[in-house]
Predict the 3D structure of the following.
Amino acid sequence: MYEDRLLTAEAADLLLAVLESEQPMLNGAAAEFSPGPVALLEAAGLLVSHGHETMSASGADDDDALVSLIRKDDAGAMAFLSPASGLVTVPRHRLQLRRVEMSRLFAAVSDQLGMPRAQDPKSLADGFLWEVGGARIGKRPARVPVWFARRMWDPAVRQKVIDALAARPHGQAIVILCSCPARRVSGVAVPGGVLVPIRDVTISDATLTVSADILDARLRGVAVPAEGPLVLSSDNTLLTINGRLHFEFKSQPMMNAIRLLVDAYRNGKRVPIGDLTHHGSPQRLFGRDRWAQLKPYLKSVNGLWGFDL
């Protein structure tokens, strides 16, 4: 089982942003702006060292032009020659390149999709598209083919994906998870595929792991609108808070209670505990683990319960 519990939302977002760059690499200058997230991604094996740059922005004499670097000494220090400042040393860490370790990324993404362990992802389009494997999603009798793509907003990449789909026809639509935000692929369709931004179906905003249940709801046509801080699916099984946090409910008492709470929030009201459950407390209704996740958002005021967002 893959573990990425030490990630944060910032770290997960940073990795997805790196995947959207032309080359899925992070340079040292950019890494300086996010030292904490970078350290977490390195600890998880999602970012790995990939050598050093041979050019750098000058930064001297108010000039940001790229300059070639020369070796300054036997210890490997690098420098460039400035007309005004002479030989200027560039800190080694600022030249370090890090790349996304795709095998670790796919392990994180597919951890809860029930894919065969012996199945390795296969590159289909020059580092932009991969066949990840067959996933167990919902009660479907057959595995669902899952691909992963980056930069799907780029028409050239999108054409590569369309060509790959045409060359590898399946008896069912292929799920194409993508690293770009939903807003960048709004309205984009690919024949033979279902495009799903990965951020729409992760188990939380602090992970890259896709929830099989949320993906199942997405494929069944249970819409999760991005607008509004509180969105509940029409069957009362999937609650989304602030567009990122996803909670699933499988028992009827939970579904009834969450529908009452969502309706009350939209009407500016709160609900007495007796209307929610006969257990006397939301913790007993939702269970310890789920309540620990909901507790920051559900508050009691004068004995009346409601969402505080």
